[in-house]
Design brief:
Largest interface: A-B, 33 and 33 residues
CATH superfamily of the largest domain in chain A: Winged helix-like DNA-binding domain superfamily/Winged helix DNA-binding domain
Oligomer: homodimer
Structural class of chain A: alpha+beta
Bound molecules: zinc ion
Mean pLDDT of chain A: 91
Strand order of the largest sheet of chain A: 4-3-5
Helix content of chain A: 40-55%
DNA sequence: GAACGATACGTTATATTGTATCCTTCGTTG
DNA sequence: CAACGAAGGATACAATATAACGTATCGTTC
């Protein structure tokens, strides 16, 4: 079917394997449409808004794509841990720590827009402790630090 | 003028004093419209969306209020530290630690919607350290933990 | 292979959240 | 009062996200 042969951003074997593995673990189906969205995000390697992503996909596939379609694919990618959603900017970013599913923390540069995904078990432990002290049962934690990345901080010193 | 005499939610002296103090510090003007929005939020003491707030104010004042108006008042309240914005739910909550301006962390109950504002200097220090290790210059940190509050966690044990 | 239920996809419309623009009003200051 | 800048109001619009409904595809069972 023509639809499924639509152009897709190139996707390194590494990422395809990762996606296949996650789907196998979680009993999810890895369809061409889902893979196309993932590939498009990986082609940028930066945080994109849902509507930016729609634009990119429409350009690549030369057809209209409804918002709902992309939101469903994003839901899937987030469910499987392949993509994170940045709450403070309402953007989406492919996971950069593909070894295992995880909680992440993010450093967002307000100058260049770069996002650094970090993992600190110490931080997670501390958050757990804080919640526990208050009888709160944590499910997941959003940690997003805004500021200047190293490169931008240096530039600013003029 | 009739407009300024419109009904306003009752506002305890404590909060009015706080608002006056913050405005004096920051050279901001505490107008009746601004105070009315603050009072409306304090009357709920829970996180509300901007449009919920518009509805509440329209009902109270018996007139139409444009979104931009409320967003400007929210900007003011956030600038002065009287209100926080919860990034993960796009809602707004009056500050519960009025002693000084601060970074906060939030525990959001996904069952009852209650939000607990906590302050942990340990957490702030750790976040600083994490950023520092990566050459990142932090400006502000969003920390929002979703889960079940004590009361809801107990209920769920049926 | 046919029937079936579950999951995924497509289409249209709509809800929710947030801004741009332009003009008016208010409060201060000279 | 005149001039100025901050605040407020009205209208329109942009950006983000979901609802509702039907169709297609996949995987299983018979
Ligand atoms: Zn990750
Ligand atoms: Zn930067
Ligand atoms: Zn606070
Ligand atoms: Zn609760």
């Amino acid at each position: 079917m023509a639809r499924q042969l639509a152009r897709t951003a190139p996707l390194a074997a590494k990422w395809r394997k990762l996606a296949e593995g996650r789907c196998a673990e979680k009993g999810e189906r890895l369809t061409p449409a889902r893979l196309a969205v993932y590939a498009e995000m990986l082609a940028r390697r930066r945080a994109v808004s849902a509507y930016e992503l729609i634009g990119l996909l429409e350009k690549r596939q030369e057809r209209k794509i409804a918002p709902l379609t992309v939101y469903r694919h994003l839901d899937f990618l987030i469910r499987t841990g392949l993509v994170h959603r940045l709450q403070s900017t309402q953007t989406y970013l492919p996971c950069d720590h593909p070894d295992q599913a995880h909680e992440s923390q993010f450093l967002l540069c307000s100058s260049c827009g770069n996002v650094d995904e970090v993992e600190s078990t110490g931080l997670e432990a501390l958050l757990s402790r804080i919640a526990d002290e208050r009888g709160f049962r944590p499910d997941n934690a959003v940690v997003e630090v805004k500021g200047l990345c190293g490169a931008c901080a240096v530039e600013e010193q003029d």
